[in-house]
Design goal:
The chain is mainly α. Helices cover about 70% and strands about 0% of the residues. It has helices at about 1-25, 30-50, 55-75, 80-85, 105-110, 120-130, 135-140, 145-160, 175-195, 205-220, 225-240, 240-245, 265-280, 285-300, 305-320, 325-340, 340-350, 355-370, 370-385, 390-400; strands at about 245, 250. A two-stranded antiparallel sheet has the order 1-2. The longest helix has 26 residues, at about 1-25. The N and C termini lie far apart (about 45 Å).
Length: about 400
C-alpha cells in the first residue's frame, strides 16, 4: 500500500501540470480544472495502491478528470456556453488552430502571464498550476509568508475570472510582451526542482526536466530572442551538474563535486548557447547567468576557475538586476578573489536575514576566518531556514567540523 501511494504521488508530480493545462484549455476555467484534477488524483489514490498503476497513468487521469469536469458543469446547470463545453467530450470535429504555441502547458504559461495580472501573481499562479508546487513551496521561492502567497494566488485566479482573460493562444505579436513573466516562471520551476524547498526528495528531476523541455519549445518559437537562448543555456549548464550535487543524501558544493560526473553533452550545448548570445551582443539577466555558469563548467578543477571573470560578470549583472540575492552571489565570488573578510563585509549589509543561503554564506565565511562560535550560530540559522534534506545534512556536517 505504501509503495502504491508513493507511485501515485510520483505520477502527481509528473502529470499535474500537463493535466491542469489540458483541462484549462478544454473547459476554460481554472477552478474546474483544479477541482477535476484533484478528484482524479483522489480516485487514483483509492484505486492504484490495490490495482497497480494503469498502463498509461496520464491518460487515465485525463479521462477521469474530464468526466468529473463534465459532471460538475452539468450539475451546475448554468449558461448554454457551459453546456456546450460539456459536449466537447463527444465532439469529433477538429479543434481550432492552436496558433504559434502548440503545447498545452506552454499555452497556459502565456495565458497566466497576461498583462492584466501583476508580475508576482503571474509567476505564483503558473508555479501552482504548471509545476504542481504547493503554496508553502512557492512562498519559500518568493521569500514571503504562506498566507501572503495563498492570497496572491487566489486574487490572481479571481482576476482571470472577473477580467475574462481568454484561454487562447497569444498572437505572435503578443508573445514578446508576455516573455519576461514566462522566463521567470521557467527559471523558478527549474530552481524548485534543482534544490527542492519541501522535505521530500532534495532534487526533483521531473521539474528540472519540465522547465528545460518548455524552454526548448519556447526557443523554437522565438529563435531570435537572446534571453530565451540565455535561459536555456543557464538551465542546461546547471542541469549538467545535477548528478554530482547530491551524494549519499548530502549536498555537494561546486568546489567538491566530481567533475567527471558532469554531463559533457549538456555543457557543450550550454557553451554553444552562450557563444551565440555573445555574438548577438544584447546582454540580459539570463544570458549573464549562463555566462557565469559557462566559466565554472569550463574550469577543469575548482582552483582553475577564473574568479576575476566571474566577478566581472556579476558586476555586469548588478547593473541590470541590483537585487540583494545577486549581491550575495557576487560576494561569494569576491571571497575567492579578495578574501573572506572583504566578502563578509558585503554580505553583512544585505537585507536577507530570512534567506537560508545568506546564513549559509555567512557561516562559510566566518568558518574560513576562524570565527567558530559565530560560524556555528550562522550554521544553526541556515539549517533552521531550509527544509531541503540534502542541504540540511551538508550544513550539519560543516557545523559539526567546527571546533
Amino acid at each position: 500500500m505504501k509503495d502504491g501511494t508513493a507511485a501515485v504521488e510520483r505520477v502527481f508530480r509528473e502529470e499535474y501540470g500537463r493535466l491542469i493545462a489540458s483541462l484549462a484549455r478544454r473547459f476554460g476555467d481554472i477552478d474546474i480544472a483544479e477541482e477535476a484534477a484533484g478528484e482524479a488524483f483522489v480516485a487514483a489514490l483509492e484505486r492504484w495502491p490495490e490495482s497497480g498503476l494503469p498502463p498509461n497513468p496520464g491518460g487515465w487521469l485525463t479521462t477521469v478528470a474530464g468526466n468529473r469536469a463534465i459532471d460538475r458543469i452539468r450539475r451546475e446547470n448554468q449558461r448554454d456556453a457551459k453546456h456546450q463545453a460539456a459536449f466537447m467530450y463527444y465532439d469529433d470535429t477538429p479543434h481550432e488552430p492552436t496558433g504559434p504555441v502548440e503545447d498545452d502547458r506552454l499555452r497556459l504559461l502565456f495565458t497566466c502571464c497576461h498583462p492584466s495580472l501583476a508580475p508576482e501573481a503571474r509567476i505564483a499562479l503558473t508555479l501552482r498550476l504548471l509545476g504542481g508546487l504547493t503554496v508553502p513551496e512557492i512562498a519559500q521561492a518568493f521569500l514571503v509568508p504562506e498566507t501572503t502567497m495563498a492570497q496572491r494566488i487566489t486574487r490572481a485566479k479571481k482576476k482571470i475570472a472577473s477580467a475574462k482573460v481568454p484561454y487562447r493562444v497569444p498572437e505572435a505579436a503578443d508573445l514578446p510582451e508576455r516573455l519576461g513573466g514566462v522566463l521567470a516562471v521557467l527559471f523558478l520551476v527549474f530552481n524548485e526542482g534543482y534544490l527542492a524547498t519541501g522535505d521530500g526528495d532534495p532534487v526533483r528531476a521531473e521539474l528540472t526536466g519540465e522547465a528545460i523541455r518548455l524552454t526548448r519549445i519556447l526557443r523554437q518559437l522565438l529563435p531570435e530572442e537572446p534571453e530565451v537562448a540565455g535561459l536555456l543555456g543557464l538551465l542546461v549548464l546547471t542541469e549538467a551538474r545535477r548528478e554530482a550535487r547530491v551524494r549519499n543524501g548530502q549536498l555537494v558544493p561546486l568546489d567538491e563535486q566530481d567533475r567527471a560526473g558532469w554531463d559533457r553533452a549538456l555543457i557543450d550545448e550550454g557553451h554553444d548557447l552562450v557563444r551565440e548570445c555573445l555574438a548577438i551582443n544584447r546582454p540580459g539577466r539570463y544570458q549573464i547567468l549562463a555566462a557565469i555558469n559557462a566559466v565554472h563548467t569550463d574550469a577543469p578543477t575548482a582552483p582553475d576557475t577564473d574568479w576575476s571573470q566571474v566577478v566581472a560578470l556579476y558586476d555586469q549583472l548588478t547593473r541590470l538586476d541590483p537585487s540583494p540575492i545577486v549581491a550575495l552571489n557576487r560576494a561569494v565570488a569576491v571571497a575567492e578573489l579578495d578574501g573572506p573578510d572583504v566578502a563578509l563585509a558585503l554580505v553583512d549589509r544585505l537585507p536577507l536575514t530570512g534567506y537560508h543561503a545568506w546564513h549559509a554564506t555567512r557561516a562559510d565565511l566566518l568558518r574560513r576566518l576562524g570565527r567558530s562560535v559565530e560560524a556555528k550560530e550562522a550554521y544553526d540559522a541556515a539549517i533552521a531556514a531550509t527544509q531541503n534534506s540534502a542541504e540540511r545534512t551538508y550544513l550539519s556536517r560543516k557545523r559539526g567540523e567546527l571546533v
